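Bumping my old thread because nobody answered last time. Still need a sequence for this structure:
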């Protein structure tokens, strides 16, 4: 099924107004996070990439290990690959979604929904990681002004 048809069906299914660019990609916002869908030519695959949030630098190596361990056999990442941009510390989850050679546009929409569910799950976990690291920070010394 063509990317144009899949996007058109996804628009009808979810009430979106997505359009493909010249590279076969489109983006939308979901729960305040950017989501990219990029159709990969004749491979029959669509790259799904959703932002999860920014990893707090104070979270340290333990947080990075948690994200990396989730990728082991894709078991804890709900089938996606979790990554982080080293410059911005923006974590994301990525899936390769079959584009439905069977011609079932609803199957593609279900795959997108499952990826969004995984993104929600990991955005929540990332928030918990950041909250735990904030709780581990030492309190400022008495009389010290915090920058605003």
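Sorry it took so long. Here it is:
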């Amino acid at each position: 099924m063509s990317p144009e048809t899949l996007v058109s069906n996804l628009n009808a299914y979810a009430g979106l107004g997505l359009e493909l660019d010249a590279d076969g990609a489109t983006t939308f916002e979901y729960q305040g996070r950017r989501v990219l869908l990029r159709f990969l030519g004749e491979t029959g695959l669509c790259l799904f990439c959703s932002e999860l949030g920014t990893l707090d630098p104070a979270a340290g190596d333990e947080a990075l290990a948690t994200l990396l361990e989730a990728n082991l056999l894709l078991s804890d990442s709900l089938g996606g690959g979790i990554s982080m941009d080293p410059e911005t510390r923006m974590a994301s989850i990525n899936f390769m979604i079959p584009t439905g050679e069977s011609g079932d546009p609803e199957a593609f929409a279900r795959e997108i929904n499952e990826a969004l569910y995984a993104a929600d799950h990991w955005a929540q976990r990332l928030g918990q990681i950041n909250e735990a690291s904030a709780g581990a920070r030492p309190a400022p010394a008495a009389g010290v002004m915090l920058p605003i």
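The longest helix spans residues 105-135. Let me know if any region looks off to you.
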